[in-house]
Write a sequence for this structure.
């Protein structure tokens, strides 16, 4: 398949969540706005049922391979079938669907790595449901790293919303474990991966990176904790010695207002909520989750499964549309493709 004709590989996510809703709405939006062609990996029956629930008239077309997508996308939503065991009810998650959810992610990655699709875009999953079904990873990011044959620490999660890009050093772990997980090596590795991929995918050859502290007021010279002095500052200095433009540690509570955001290209925070709260506050409907450090491109909406909204017609597809668009601009710069 010619590289320009490779569709995006979109996973359905948890079928009881809003993944089916926003997929159908994103497909419908192609009639009025720019939505790059994608092939959905999931259960056509679930989509058909959700379309009936939402009163949508989208034509759903099972296909054998992504190659059918370019000629089909204008008139029908192409779906690579992955049947789901059990009955899917909007808003009622069921661990019986966990196997199909996992399979769809694996298949999306395989299609991209074989050159049949251009990039992976994932709809939201329920980590709790997957964990109860034996899923051994805390989230998409770590699972994708494993599928790429890389360590979980190689994959870096970046949230993009408007002019703000934010990266958490630690991701899906209890807050009480963060301090033990923060090491100079881990922070430096995150900074290097972030700088490299901002150059590759976003054209920022020498990105300005602002690093937060961990403690209130960035530790207040050690009076509120020594992590900034003992771990974070040495990591910043080590990254500078490797040529990176890094500042900090900054107090996180003053780093995200409008004037502060003009001073950096990306903020690297120490833990999940420290990074995600500002980007979701500023761009909840349009934010995109990007996984850096992989040999392929992966994006996703920046929100979760929203089970309470599934099947109600209230879910917005804007974040998914932005994820599809961003993946479409990034993937030509990924590692050499077959």
């Amino acid at each position: 398949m010619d590289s320009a004709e490779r569709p995006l590989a979109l996973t359905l996510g948890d079928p009881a969540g809003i993944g089916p809703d926003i997929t159908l709405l994103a497909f419908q939006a192609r009639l009025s706005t720019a939505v790059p062609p994608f092939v959905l990996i999931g259960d056509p029956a679930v989509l058909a049922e959700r379309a009936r629930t939402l009163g949508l008239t989208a034509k759903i077309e099972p296909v054998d391979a992504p190659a059918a997508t370019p000629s089909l996308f204008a008139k029908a939503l192409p779906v690579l079938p992955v049947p789901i065991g059990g009955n899917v009810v909007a808003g009622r998650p069921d661990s019986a669907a966990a196997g199909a959810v996992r399979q769809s992610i694996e298949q999306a990655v395989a299609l991209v790595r074989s050159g049949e699709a251009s990039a992976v875009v994932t709809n939201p999953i329920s980590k709790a449901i997957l964990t109860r079904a034996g899923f051994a990873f805390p989230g998409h990011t770590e699972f994708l790293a494993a599928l790429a044959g890389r360590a979980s620490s190689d994959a870096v999660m970046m949230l993009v919303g408007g002019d703000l890009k934010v990266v958490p050093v630690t991701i899906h772990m209890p807050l009480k474990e963060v301090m033990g997980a923060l090491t100079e090596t881990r922070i430096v590795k995150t900074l290097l991966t972030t700088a490299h991929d901002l150059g590759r995918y976003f054209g920022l050859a020498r990105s300005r990176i602002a690093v937060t502290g961990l403690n209130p007021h960035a530790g207040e010279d050690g009076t509120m904790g020594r992590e900034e002095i003992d771990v974070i500052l040495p990591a910043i200095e080590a990254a500078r010695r490797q040529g990176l433009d890094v500042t900090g540690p900054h107090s996180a509570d003053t780093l995200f207002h409008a004037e502060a955001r003009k001073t950096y290209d990306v903020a690297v925070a120490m833990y999940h909520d420290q990074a995600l709260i500002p980007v979701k506050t500023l761009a909840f409907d349009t934010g995109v989750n990007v996984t850096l450090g992989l040999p392929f491109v992966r994006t996703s909406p920046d929100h979760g499964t929203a089970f309470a909204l599934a099947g109600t017609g209230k879910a917005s597809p804007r974040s998914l549309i932005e994820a599809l668009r961003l993946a479409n601009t990034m993937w030509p710069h990924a590692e050499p493709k077959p």
Q: What stands out?
A: Residues 1-149+294-338 form a domain with the Isopropylmalate Dehydrogenase fold (CATH 3.40.718.10). The longest strand covers residues 156-161.
